[in-house]
Write a structure and sequence with these properties.
- The chain has 287 residues and is of the alpha+beta class.
- It has two domains: 252 residues, Glutaredoxin; 25 residues, no CATH class.
- Helix content is 41%, strand content 14%.
- It is built from ten helices and ten strands.
- Strands 6-5-9-10 form a four-stranded mixed beta sheet, with helices on both faces. The chain has a two-stranded antiparallel ribbon with strand order 1-2. A two-stranded antiparallel ribbon has the order 3-4.
- Strand 9 and strand 10 form a beta hairpin.
- The longest helix is centred in the C-terminal third of the chain and has 16 residues.
């Protein structure tokens, strides 16, 4: 079947090509394949969004099957107070209903475990952490971890102090040369912003791209001439999982894991030095 496209704009950035398209619904039934190769996907999402949570789990399934995913984080509600907002009774009911709707979209064998979080976080800190991880080669682990912290653990991912310990492992495993990341595993400043200028620019670029798309509801999936938002994006990812015969809910390594260190210092040395070195040389298993 031929696909009718309305192409509004194609631009390039310093990173991967940025697609800014609209297409007709017929595209939803077509595989994302050009020239025999599966196209890479660009995703825009936030961490406090139930639909984005399912999108992340489907992104893991596709990435495990070899489909490239370029995940870009945007803070969809920057107007929230830094402490976030408590769920009202109406919010809690709406959240329960949304997850029930998402359960109806699940593929055979797919699951979406969750617990009701107490707070709607201001996700600035989470987006900052992810932007640092994106440039440091550990984006997938940090993305997965942030969703786990919020939707399974109920953590306030808008609080940089809450994020510091869980993120230390993946950030220390990264290839970043920035001192706070490389030496201490810090990815978020005390004021919820990123550590490096590159990450700051990355956040600004992602937000600008999202706004140029018209700030549609998250998640957004861009690929091969299509801009798909919300439930359409989820359905598209579900179809792609079927096209590539990807395993849903793949078993993945613990995203919190620390780097392997061949020459471990003694436990007494670590306890005496403490501070940032306690993270770098954390002893696991046999000492």
């Amino acid at each position: 079947m031929r696909v009718a496209l309305d192409v509004r704009q194609i631009t390039s950035t310093s990173g991967p090509n940025k697609y800014n398209y609209y297409c007709k619904k017929e595209y939803l039934s077509q595989p994302m394949v050009i020239g025999g190769n599966v196209m890479n996907l660009i995703v825009y999402a936030d961490f406090s969004c139930p639909d984005c949570y399912l999108t992340s789990r489907r992104a893991d399934a596709l990435a495990t099957a070899g489909v490239p995913i370029d995940w870009r984080a945007v803070e969809h509600a920057p107007q929230l107070a830094t402490t976030g907002a408590r769920h009202s009774a109406a919010d809690q009911q709406a959240l329960t209903e949304r997850f029930a709707a998402l359960d109806a979209l699940l593929l055979p064998g797919e699951s979406l475990p969750w617990t009701e979080p107490a707070v709607v976080p201001k996700t600035e800190a989470a987006v900052s952490a992810y932007a640092e991880a994106y440039g440091a080669g550990v984006a997938d682990d940090v993305r997965r971890l942030l969703f786990q912290l919020y939707w399974l653990g109920g953590a306030d991912i808008g609080n940089p102090n809450v994020l510091r310990a869980p993120l230390a492992g993946p950030i220390l495993r990264s290839h970043s040369s920035a001192g706070p990341l490389h030496e201490s595993g810090y990815a978020v400043s005390v004021d919820r912003g990123p550590i490096t200028t590159d990450a700051y620019r990355r956040i600004r670029s992602w937000r600008t791209e999202w706004q140029e798309l018209g700030s549609p509801a998250l998640p957004i999936v861009l690929t091969a001439g299509a801009t798909l938002s919300g439930t359409d994006a989820l359905r598209r990812l579900g179809k792609e999982i079927g096209y590539v015969d990807a395993q849903v809910d793949p078993q993945l390594d613990d995203p919190r894991r620390y780097p392997s260190i061949s020459d471990r210092p003694s436990a007494s040395w670590v306890s005496q030095i403490g501070g940032r070195w306690r993270n770098t040389y954390r002893l696991t298993g046999a000492h």
